[in-house]
Amino acid sequence: MRLRHYGKPPTGRNDWRTIKSLLPYLLEFRGRAILALAFLATAKVANVSVPLILKQIVDTFEQRQALLALPIFLFAAYGLLRFANSLFGELRDVVFVKVLQRSIRRVALKVFEHLHKLSLRFHLERQTGGVSRDIERGAAGIRFLINFMLFNILPTILEIAFVTGILLVKYDPWFAIITVTTIVAYIAFTLWVTEWRMIFRRTMNEMDSKANTRAIDSLINYETVKYFNNEQYESRRYDEMLAIWEKAAVRNQTSLSFLNAGQAFIIAAGVTTLMLLAGYGVMQGRMSVGDLVLVNAFLIQLYMPLNFLGFVYREIRHSLADMERMFSLLDREPEVRDAPGAKELIVTRAHVRFEHVDFSYDPDRQILFDVDFDVPAGHKVAVVGTSGGGKSTLARLLFRFYDVSGGRILIDGQDIRDVTQKSLRAIIGIVPQDTVLFNDTIYYNIAYGRPEATEPEIIQAATHANIHRFIESLPKGYETMVGERGLKLSGGEKQRVAIARAILKRPRILVFDEATSALDSQSEKAIQAALAEIAANHTTLVIAHRLSTIMDADQILVMEGGRIIERGTHAELLVHGGTYAGLWALQLKEDRERPARAVGNGLAHAD
Q: Is 179 helix (H, G, I), strand (E, B) or coil?
């Protein structure tokens, strides 16, 4: 197993660029954001004022001979400031919560929509488990980043400024100098160590995503794992990722302990120095006991959030690392885009034309060579040939999942690259060879073809697809859950649901990509009759494996190696005696041998 590349952390995305990308979402409710910041500043003013009142109280009690009455006003002011600090902090949260949650919602929606805009190539290459984990961590990172940058870093900076200003004005400049020096040393040490630690966090994220991808991939293919007794093999592959994650996690925690110890030493040194300076001032008579209490209260009040600031900064860096993978998805450009000023596709006859089409998935591997054919309005054209000949690629190009490398595809004379993808795909219905259903009800999966369809229309589509009677026989009928990717249904049942979904869409152009390949002979005949009825008034492109299903096609194209090597009707191609005639003879032979094999298997079981 070659795993060295897994240990390499991903390239860091510019952090300021990530933060900047969040600003438009925060500014959607700029009034709320400004009010929240005002509440934040008020809370910090109240918090800094508390030690000043405490100094007055201590100094008042120190002068016992002058104390004639309890300083109720000072105690009331002390209590009110404490309450104001908490009250304005809560008001800040109440005002800002909508800004925060709406920002998370907007970003998550933007990523979700962008993933649907990305081209088929990306989705064929992506790892679902890793992508889902990246989005999950990215959303959590946004929540942490917005909350703590605005409500922890900014308040702490304000508090440092207030406290430093008071110390500078009221006391010896050395108080302010030592305070600022300690803060600068603390921040510099935190930045240095945290940057060093980020490589471990990125490696942890990389391995976490890869481990999650392997786990989901293995569980989705549960039956395949069981077929080949590969449980231990899958466990080893999963543990390979976890082992690298464990190593990075241990280094991450060890470096964290070093960071915490260094921060504690810097704070302890600064506090000790300031308290010695304050104590010396009291002994010299330049400062009162209240001043000593004031300095101590300020230091505690200042260094506690400063200590938390170290944690916040670390977590913000971690959040940015978490977010960078999610935002990298937004940086990916869709391979297929609507042309500037693209118009809606106007369909009058639904005449499809492939005009000298060339296509390559990769520059060094051409799939189609000068493919040229027409599907006249209301006609049925079938494409047959050996596996890998480029048949299914035609459907992907018609849907514009990819753009042709050469030539063009026209619908009613309009190049599909000049119209919107939405209007193009709205008029095409497809029954794919490999039908994947949503993990929802049968009703939902059929209705997906046209979500606004009525229940009678959905039942009618199911009836045409020869699946209504089967659905009605189920205990929960149309409300039966199909399982993830439709795994609770057989291959034939899934394809009949897909056929019903395509029927419900009411498309002008139909594509059947080996649509009956998973059906038994009886169901195939029943559905073929239904498909023939449906296709009667549609332009139909059939990609076929069983030649018996396309005998009635107006034209049959035989593809081999990405080229059309024969074309004509079923009868014409048989008379021609070429590749199609050979495929037909081979299929007839297989059909004759199938009953004999079935009888032989039955006798073997009887023995």
A: helix
Give the end-to-end CA distance of the chain in Å, rounded to a whole number.
Answer: 47
In sequence order, the β-bridge partners of residue 360 are 366
Q: Which pTM does this prediction carry?
A: 0.64
DSSP string, 454-520: -HHHHHHHHHHTT-HHHHHHSTTGGG-B--GGGTTS-HHHHHHHHHHHHHHH--SEEEEESTTTTS-
CATH of 352-427+507-606, one of 3.10.129.10, 2.40.50.140, 3.40.50.300, 3.40.50.720: 3.40.50.300
Boundaries of every domain in the chain: 14-331, 352-427+507-606, 437-498
| Tokens at 391, concatenated | 């048949």
- Given this model, what pLDDT does residue 248 score? 82
pLDDT confidence band for 478 (50 / 70 / 90): very high
- Over residues 364-381, the mean pLDDT reads 91
> Which residues, other chains included, contact 413 with Cβ-Cβ below 8 Å and sequence gap of 6+?
351
411-417: which pairs have CB atoms within 8 A and are 24 or more residues apart?
A: 411/345, 411/347, 411/350, 411/351, 411/352, 411/353, 411/509, 412/346, 412/347, 412/348, 412/349, 412/350, 412/351, 413/351, 414/345, 414/346, 416/345, 417/339
Overall fold of domain 14-331: ABC transporter transmembrane region fold (1.20.1560)
pLDDT score for 359:
93
Positive or negative: CA dihedral 175, 179, 182, 185: negative
550-563 average pLDDT score: 91
| Token pair for 372 | 């040229």
- Distance of alpha carbon 32 from alpha carbon 438, whole angstroms: 40
In contact, 334 and 119? CB cutoff 8 Å: yes
Q: Which residue has the higher pLDDT, 142 or 581?
A: 581
Q: What is the mean pLDDT of residues 201-211?
A: 79
- Angstrom distances, CA of residue 347 to CA of 186, 191, 427, 526: 69, 62, 8, 31
pLDDT at 251 over 50: yes
Three-class DSSP category at 314? helix
User: Residue 143: which of 331, 332, 329, 322 has the closest Cα?
Assistant: 322
The predicted-structure confidence for 381-430, as pLDDT tens digits, reads as follows 999 987 777 888 899 899 998 899 999 999 999 999 999 999 999 999 88
What distance in Å separates the CA atoms of residue 507 and residue 426, rounded to the nearest whole number?
A: 7
3-state secondary structure of 539: strand
pLDDT for the residue numbered 315: 76
CB-side neighbour CA atoms (13 Å) of 89:
15
